[in-house]
């Protein structure tokens, strides 16, 4: 039998949720509504299209001037995208897009987010069996309150275990400014490495995208949620084996040496949290 899991760390958008939740955040912002009358910002599509163009241009230039033969080279590329994120956020702050949102609105909006099947049940059960500080959410999302609203049915989830960017508030209303905490995959990795795994126990990271890959590989058991095409392509390029499902036999082999996952580059892929529950790895 493999050692018990003492640290469970999960991504939010597309890992806990069925879809990216940013659009729901934008829907709460008064200045991004059709009803906006005075000095209104451009439509949200302006910001998203410009971000993706700048990101694609940045990646293209990076690949021309930097090596990209190893997974470490690729991680440097992921870290460099922080510059694109920062530029985009500054543009959004300049137009004051995110101002005027009440905390309660964010929590209520978060409660509407559709989660992947089994999410709440698995997280509740894990927290019931483990001490506080055994479960964390690391996310590039822009609102801890939105995440909290989505997970409010899970006892033990609070703002302190949600590691994400966050809106800045004055008297419970957002100012339009953003507190930066997670702008790149390497920011996620730094936070993950700072968390404590109890002696004799294992760490698990669950994520869905390339932004999660450094953490997925750093965990004792790394789990990919879903079928992100770009992530699958990256894993294939760098010789990272992906095993569909969570096999007890394979997990035992990995856990016999806590460095085995990193050296053998084996990750596990599931389609929802019900698969994780069925595997029993969090029991």
Topology of this structure?
Blueprint: E1 5-10, H1 22-27, H2 44-65, H3 71-80, H4 82-94, E2 99-102, H5 103-110, H6 119-129, E3 135-139, H7 144-150, E4 162-164, E5 166-170, E6 173-179, H8 185-194, E7 202-207, H9 213-218, E8 221-225, H10 229-237, E9 241-244, H11 248-255, H12 260-264, E10 266-270, H13 273-279
Parallel strand pairs: 1-3, 1-7, 3-4, 7-8, 8-10, 9-10
Antiparallel strand pairs: 2-6, 5-6
Structural write-up:
This protein has 283 residues and is α/β, with parallel strands linked by helices. 43% of the residues lie in helices and 18% in strands. Helix 5 (103-110) crosses helix 7. The longest helix has 22 residues, at 44-65. The radius of gyration is 19 Å and the shape is globular. The N and C termini lie close together (12 Å).
């Amino acid at each position: 039998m493999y050692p018990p899991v003492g640290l469970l760390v999960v991504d939010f958008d597309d890992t806990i949720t069925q879809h990216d939740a940013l659009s729901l955040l934008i829907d709460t912002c008064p200045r991004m509504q059709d009803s906006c009358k005075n000095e209104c910002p451009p439509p949200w599509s302006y910001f998203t299209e410009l971000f993706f163009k700048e990101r694609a241009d940045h990646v293209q230039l990076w690949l021309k001037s930097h090596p990209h033969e190893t997974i470490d080279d690729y991680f440097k590329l992921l870290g460099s995208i922080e510059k694109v994120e920062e530029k985009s956020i500054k543009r959004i702050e300049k137009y004051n897009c995110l101002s005027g949102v009440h905390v309660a609105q964010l929590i209520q909006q978060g409660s509407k987010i559709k989660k992947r099947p089994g999410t709440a049940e698995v997280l509740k059960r894990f927290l019931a069996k483990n001490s506080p500080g055994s479960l964390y959410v690391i996310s590039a999302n822009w609102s801890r309150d939105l995440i909290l609203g989505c997970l409010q049915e899970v006892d033990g989830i609070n703002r302190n275990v949600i590691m994400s960017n966050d809106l800045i508030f004055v008297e419970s209303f957002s100012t339009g400014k953003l507190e930066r905490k997670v702008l790149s995959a390497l920011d996620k990795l730094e936070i993950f490495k700072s968390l404590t795994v109890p002696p004799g126990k294992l760490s698990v990271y669950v994520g869905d995208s390339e932004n999660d890959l450094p953490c997925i590989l750093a965990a004792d058991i790394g789990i990919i949620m879903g079928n992100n095409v770009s992530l699958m392509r990256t894993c294939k390029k760098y010789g990272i084996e992906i095993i569909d499902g969570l096999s007890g036999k394979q997990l035992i082999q990995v856990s016999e040496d806590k460095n085995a996952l990193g050296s053998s580059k084996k990750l596990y892929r599931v389609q929802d949290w019900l698969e994780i529950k069925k595997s029993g790895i969090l029991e």
